[in-house]
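WARN no homologs supplied; continuing
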Amino acid sequence: MPDQATADPAAAPENTGPENTAPENTAPENPAPGNSAPGFAAPDFADQEIAAVEIVGVRTVDLAPEPAWPGADAADLAGLVTELIGDQAGAWDLDGHIPREIVRELGRAGVLCAQAPAAHGGLGLSNVDAGELTAHVGALCSSTRSLMTSQGMAAWTVERFGDDAQRAEYLGRLTAGETAGVAFSEPGAGSDLSGMATRIETEGDSVVVTGQKVWVTGAAYADLLVVFGRVGEGAGAVLVPTDAPGVTVTRVPDPLGCRAAGHADVLLDGVRLPADHVLAGAGLPLEWLVTSALTYGRLSVAWGCVGILRGCLAETTRHARTRQQFGRPLADHQLVARHLAELHVAERAATALCAEAARGRDAGGPEHVSAAVTAKHFAAGAAVRGAASAVQVLASAGARDGHPVARAHRDAKLMEIIEGSTEIGQLLLADHALAVWS
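OK structure emitted
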């Protein structure tokens, strides 16, 4: 079937709220070499072509408090995450901060970019294994899951567009405990990244980066930022240390959700860096560069929404089974039971869509880009509705700031905005439907 059709940025609604995103541009994730800006080497994609293969069936996962992990590494990591986060997510949310030693330990353990190759110190998890790990983290703490998404996108961008030396250095640093964020959005470039104004300009054996980025997830913790900007007539990505002269990171005050995820605005005031900080591929069309990172991010967010739904299921079923009103447990009241049933169906459906997208991405199938958009679109909406139902079932018990379902209610809403708003997803999926079914 044809791959995802490209959305028309001019026709897209303006969604310039908190996001690290752009409309889906389905130019090839494996573009042909060429169009390289002066001073930068074009990437060699000859050994990275993806064959068109049939998408295999959706893996089913038995619903349980702990998922049946497909890989031992993921199961071990899940135990470590449970131990490190424990019951602290609510306090971190209220404080707006995850202790840096926790972030560093998660990074050193490989949790934050679990798909980074073993050759560079990573765990090399498949998309399926990494997805279940992401859902597990999302069920415990969406702020921590947001750091996973951000760091994973950064590592994937380096792996995808970096040369051998860049992969060896920067993936090695990210798997050893350093942290990273990815900077897409700007004051004038939200859903429509064609308005991006940040410049990456060559000056001798250096580059100078000038611009302003907004709502960069994890930037408040980051040692390194992958900054997308204009290079000549095309675009590029440059690795910017947050302690470089000219970099100012300002934390977003009191975000609606994922309050401890370190969202920040970043000012880049003539930041001078060695030219080898620019990833290969500089000068290629913007959509070619961002599609790969955004697809990774969308699937990660979708798995995180599965986690939100699982967390809400755990809280609502526990409460409905033990809380009594009118002489019987809440779960025995049909209108309450309806909420439990709909939560269960939402979690099952979101898991199936995420698993299909992950398996397709692992197989290199032609539909994995649109499958990630589908999974993210459905899972985010399901998480919003599911979290609202969870608050309804728990009532005053769940309406207190810091409670897991109150936190889920706020966190889930952000999932409908980041990595492509609901409206952008609808436009992309409508184009895809027309391309496939008409």
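Residues 181-277 form a domain with the Butyryl-CoA Dehydrogenase, subunit A; domain 2 fold (CATH 2.40.110.10).
OK
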